[in-house]
Amino acid sequence: MFEKDMVKILTTVIIECSESGLNNLANQYAIELMKENYKPLIPDAYKMRVDKIARKYKNDPDPPQSYSACPFCNFDLPDYVLDCNNCHNVIPFCIASGRHVICSDLTKCPSCNFPAIFSEFVSYLMNISEKKCPMCEDLVDHQLLEKLEDPLTYLKSRKIANLELHEREKRIDTARSEN
User: Fold this and answer.
1) Cα 120–Cα 107–Cα 116 angle in degrees, nearest 5
2) Residue 1 above 60 pLDDT?
3) 87 and 70 Cβ atoms separated by less than 8 Å
4) Which of 29, 79, 117, 164 qualifies as a FRET site for 2, CA 20 to 30 Å off?
5) Angstrom distance (rounded) from CA 103 to CA 108
């Protein structure tokens, strides 16, 4: 399906895995990319790096995946999974970390109302020079952030808002296609 883009995709995967500390995975894909049918297609800027990753095999275990509870049903999920296989809800991601949000440590941006893990958002804001929300880029004072008292109601209201937005977009698309 992605044959024409296979080399680009694998090269990106190798570089991202390598930079993320997933060395075994980077090595595995680099070996695949160094096969005769793909090797000539590797962009020159990455050939040496991919070759080095393919040759340098360390049997270092990849970092263990961390888990946290689904905010809707408390089922344990990997931190970066955004849909729950147990309750089938789509889980919002934290604007500061990219992880799925958790009820016990939930806040929101005061400007754009986007959810964030409280501790991650505060840490993010304290470690950047311009104290701006990564979503709306409005200034945010981390001292004014508060954990949400009823996170489940907030998450459910966002879900309804997202469904209403989706329905409105569908109506607009339908009206455009009819014209």
Assistant:
1) 45
2) no
3) yes
4) 79
5) 12
